[in-house]
Specification:
Elements (H helix, E strand, L loop, with lengths): L2 H6 L7 H9 L15 E6 L5 E7 L3 E6 L11 H7 L3 E6 L19 H14 L5 E6 L1 H12 L4 E7 L9 H9 L4 H12 L5 H4 L7 H9 L12 H11 L1 H8 L5 E7 L6 H10 L4 E5 L11 H16 L1
Parallel strand pairs: 3-4, 3-5, 5-6, 6-7, 7-8
Antiparallel strand pairs: 1-2, 2-4
Length: 317
């Protein structure tokens, strides 16, 4: 949801609603080169006939990795599955409209929460998993919470990495947390990209980090044209997610399993987002990583090590 674009230079905005959703898609922004190979990969067929690609890495107890966006390819989670696959079988779902899970048509029906839930439930059944341990990052955490609200008995544990909210409340301050971190050069880049009606992802990317130097170094290696999945996925998915928030908040309290949040203290999502989750899921354990933003595994070495320590220890418990 490109509030930044609208606030900074309205004269360049052609479609405010569309650009707003593009900005929110940055919640999980980062892409590694698309040369990553799964130990195995196969397609499953969801209830609406969509072919979904599922990758598996390692051996051991299964854990499900859910990428952010919505609408971004899962490659950016590679450091996480590389680490966890030493001990666990990491199952990575290419969410509809991303990776190899290509849709014939991207519309409000194909991108509904009902279909997202059917995707996860179909995967659970076809992989013969009684319960799911869901590890979601950003939007992936939101998707995990939606699933737990609908199938509380099918979830063993929720591990929420820098999660978005159960409701849309976090959107009120998320934009400001990003905006206040941007430098003049970033604002100029936003203006230039907006004139060309291009995505402003690269311009606001440093705002997701505590360490700006790390963000700028990583930014040099990224092709921001290859980050997103199919056009339209982000906006349509968020529309469906937020339209169901009252029911989700009501039903999530039926889930009594374990919940953990691991997040950077300086994540632009804001601490209140995490405590709102804990309000409805009081069993939630929150672990903060100091001097750290939205991508703990990409910050300084100290933050990277603490992130993986917290994640691996949490999964053991």
């Amino acid at each position: 949801m490109n509030y930044l674009h609208t606030k900074l230079n309205k004269r360049y905005t052609k479609s405010t609603n569309n650009l707003k959703m593009k900005t929110i898609s940055i919640l999980i922004l980062i892409l590694f080169p698309s040369i990553l190979y799964a130990q195995s990969g196969s397609f499953i067929t969801s209830s609406d006939g969509t072919k979904l690609y599922v990758q598996e890495f390692g051996n051991g107890k299964p854990v499900i990795l859910l990428a952010g966006g919505p609408g971004l390819n899962a490659d950016y989670l590679q450091p996480i599955w590389t680490k966890l696959s030493i001990t666990y079988k990491c199952i990575v779902l290419n969410q509809r409209g991303t990776g190899k899970s290509i849709l014939d048509s991207v519309n409000s029906n194909s991108m509904s929460m009902d279909n997202y839930m059917s995707d996860l439930e179909t995967m659970r059944k076809q992989l013969n998993l009684e319960k799911l341990t869901l590890i979601g990052h950003s939007w992936g955490s939101m998707l995990a919470m939606e699933y737990a609200s609908r199938y509380p008995e099918k979830v063993e544990k929720l591990v929420l990495l820098n999660p978005g909210g159960l409701s849309s409340n976090y959107i009120k301050y998320f934009q400001d947390n990003i905006l206040c971190r941007l430098h003049e050069e970033d604002i100029q880049e936003i203006s230039e990209l907006s004139k060309k009606n291009k995505s402003i992802m690269s311009a606001i990317y440093p705002g997701y980090f505590y360490n700006r130097s790390s963000a700028l170094e990583i930014k040099k290696t990224m092709d921001f044209n290859e980050i997103n999945g199919q056009d339209g996925v982000t906006q349509l998915t968020y529309n469906s997610y937020f339209s169901d928030q009252k029911m989700r908040i009501k039903n999530i309290e039926k889930y009594k399993g374990e919940v953990s949040i691991i997040a950077g203290r300086q994540d632009p999502m804001g601490e209140s987002t995490f405590y709102e989750i804990k309000e409805h899921l009081p069993q939630t354990q929150i672990y903060f990583i100091e001097k750290c933003g939205h991508f703990p595994w990409l910050e300084n070495q100290e933050q990277k090590e603490e992130f993986f320590h917290l994640l691996t220890e949490d999964l053991k418990n």
